[in-house]
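Hi everyone, sorry if this is the wrong subforum. Our group has a chain we'd like a structural model of before ordering constructs, and none of us has done structure prediction before. Sequence below.
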Amino acid sequence: MTSSFRVFVACVSAWLLWGCASAPRKPAAGGPSRHAQSAQAHFASPFTYEWFVRAELLRASGRLEDAIEAYRTALTGADEDAQLSARLGSALAEHGDLAGAQQVLDEALVLDPESESVWLARAELSELRGDLDSAINALERAERAAPSSARAPLRLAELLREHGHVERASAVLERFRARSSVAGGADAHRAALEQALERRDADEVFEATLPYRLGAPPSATLVQRAATLLLERERPVLALRVLELLPPPERDASLELRVLRTVGSLPALESWFVTHEPTRSDERVEAARALLLLGKVEDAAIIVDAERLSQPVTPILQLLAAQVELARGHYADAAESFARVPSAASVAAEARLGLTQALSALGLGPLGAEVGLHASQAAAAAAASVQ
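Answer:
Right subforum, don't worry. Here is the predicted structure as tokens:
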């Protein structure tokens, strides 16, 4: 298939899809409004669809300025298309032209005051301006404009959660679930899982993944959030079952390593290293921890040394360096390194355990036991303060 033919197919597909979305609306009682007449008469040309497709492709590839020009070109063949104007306004906002985006979206709202796309774009613009109230209002208007759509309620719940309004976020999700539960589609499943994650209840989160385990298409982001929460709630086996809902290329490598390491699945960890190469820093750190568990001390040491040279030494890197020395049998160096891990660090308990082991190996068993006792007491006090 030639590239020109592929472009032709893409344009025709978009034309058909958008054409269906722009089907004539039923006139209101008393005759059609100006907007309804416009919607019934509106038919975008192949020229408009071709340039719309070009704009979307350019935007997806990061060529935002070229995409904006393509949207403008598309609008020359459809100057009263609110949905296309919404995409242009969104692109302008993303590019930093907030005034230009505002003007385009104001004009689009005159064309179609009940356009979900326009209200979503206005919410995006308000977020960029830091105007939370306007963003929430725009998302609520988008939700009313398209009650069966998931885009507005899910973004609204996410925005409310990000700003600490957890109960309001839950109410939005509950409202959407009530509308969509009859259909039982992917959007309803997603809303149920979002709500369970809001409550941070491990059992409820795992139960909410049931539709995905029965074959519904999973949301990669939500599934990984669920696995993370289950891991934090010390349910690593459930976290692994949830993470396995995603095909391997879609799994976050760092999270997968943490889950496998916590479960203690050595064969699975061995297999992971056969097919994967950690790239990000967090992946390499988790890979080093997994390699230590597998007894591959020198492989872990190579990663730790490289990370310590490339970035400031973090508590986790300090812990890993100490664990490498402990595994090598350099107990004095290990004890010194373990002692340097800050007591407030998230890995402090592991460091104190390692220090106890290093001191015991040096023949300082009573001192090691005392350190271990203090570590246990500190961990218990920290757990009590969280509860």
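For your construct planning: The CA atoms of residues 148 and 179 lie 7 Å apart. Confidence is low (pLDDT under 50) at residues 1-42.
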